[in-house]
Amino acid sequence: MKLKNVLIVTKDIEKSKKYYHDLFGLNVVFDNDGNVIMTEGLVLQDEAIWKRFIGKEIKQRNNATELYFEESDIEGFSAKLERLYPDTEYVNTLMTHSWGQRVIRFYDPDGNLIEVGTPM
């Protein structure tokens, strides 16, 4: 068995496509009316479609999962995030863990938790 994709729910597909392209360089591979597959295996699903599939309310910002990215130029990424999305809500700004890894954690516009860290 192989993990193929990770799906996140979004209120605004176009806004999310732009966000993940601007910050992480992800490109759209497949776009079908509220269902978007991006490079690196990220799938965006329109909230209304997902709600119909699962038949339950969507709980945004649940802090139970995290998208993790690695970036060698963490200072450059941090500056780009601040420049492009100055209203970002942070869990923590750029910090260094005791083991030496530098990380930044924040929420995307839909409340999905993201961590960007230097490679280990």
Description of the molecule:
- By secondary structure, the chain is of the alpha/beta class.
- Helices cover 26% and strands 33% of the residues.
- The longest helix has 12 residues.
Brief summary:
The protein is α/β, with parallel strands linked by helices and 120 residues long.
Q: What's the helix and strand layout?
A:
Elements: E1 6-10, H1 13-24, E2 28-31, E3 35-38, E4 42-46, H2 47-54, E5 67-70, H3 74-84, E6 90-96, E7 102-107, E8 113-117
Parallel strand pairs: 1-4, 5-8
Antiparallel strand pairs: 2-3, 3-4, 6-7, 7-8
Element pattern in H and E? EHEEEHEHEEE
Number of individual domains: 2
Overall helicity: 25-40%
Q: What is the general shape?
A: globular
CATH architecture of the largest domain: Roll
User: Number of DSSP strands?
Assistant: 8
Which percent range describes the beta-strand content?
25-35%
CATH superfamily of the largest domain: 2,3-Dihydroxybiphenyl 1,2-Dioxygenase, domain 1
CATH class of the largest domain, anyone? Answer: Alpha Beta
Distance between the termini: 26 Å
Instruction: State the major sheet.
Output: 4 strands, mixed
- Helix/sheet category: alpha/beta
- Fill in the CATH topology of the largest domain: 2,3-Dihydroxybiphenyl 1,2-Dioxygenase, domain 1
Instruction: Outline the low-pLDDT stretches.
Output: none
Number of helices: 3
